[in-house]
């Protein structure tokens, strides 16, 4: 069977598109999980609670790996203790955003329980 040359080009082009789409589906579906390298440590959570001034915490929220803490007064925050926790922090007004890489949900639950006790 003798086909025109453009048919072979179309078949080759369709095959290349098929291969490209298969690779895209594989890479898009591949989920990247960040496994904690170390377990949740309540001592670090307690240090963070103390660094934020304990009763100074007004509200908490968790957005992905960012813990947003609204405090009553920035003067009650212990900067040295906050540095010891080694969480990168950003301050905007009375809101402190902490990047908690490995165990953000556990840290959020711990701080939420501690603030409810008061």
Shape: rod-shaped
**Would you report the number of β strands?**
4
User: Percent of residues in beta strands?
Assistant: 15-25%
CATH architecture of the domain at 42-117: 2-Layer Sandwich
Round the mean pLDDT to the nearest integer and report it: 86
Structural class by sheet pairing and helices = alpha+beta
Helix content: 40-55%
Say which CATH homologous superfamily of the domain at 42-117 is assigned: Glucose permease domain IIB
Please work out how many helical segments DSSP would assign: 4
User: Which CATH class of the domain at 42-117 is shown?
Assistant: Alpha Beta
What do we call the CATH topology of the domain at 42-117?
Gyrase A, domain 2
What characterizes the major β-sheet?
Answer: 4 strands, antiparallel
Distance between the termini: 86 Å
Low-confidence stretches: none
Order of helices and strands: HHEEHEEH
Q: Please, could you describe this protein's structure?
A:
The chain is of the alpha+beta class and 118 residues long. It has a domain at 42-117: Gyrase A, domain 2. The protein has helices spanning 5-29, 42-51, 79-85, 104-117, and strands at residues 57-63, 66-71, 89-92, 95-99. The protein is rod-shaped. The N and C termini lie far apart (86 Å). 13% of the residues are buried. The model has no long low-confidence stretch (mean pLDDT 86).
Structure in a nutshell:
By secondary structure, the protein is an alpha+beta fold.
Q: What keyword list fits this structure?
A:
118 residues, 4 helices, Gyrase A, domain 2
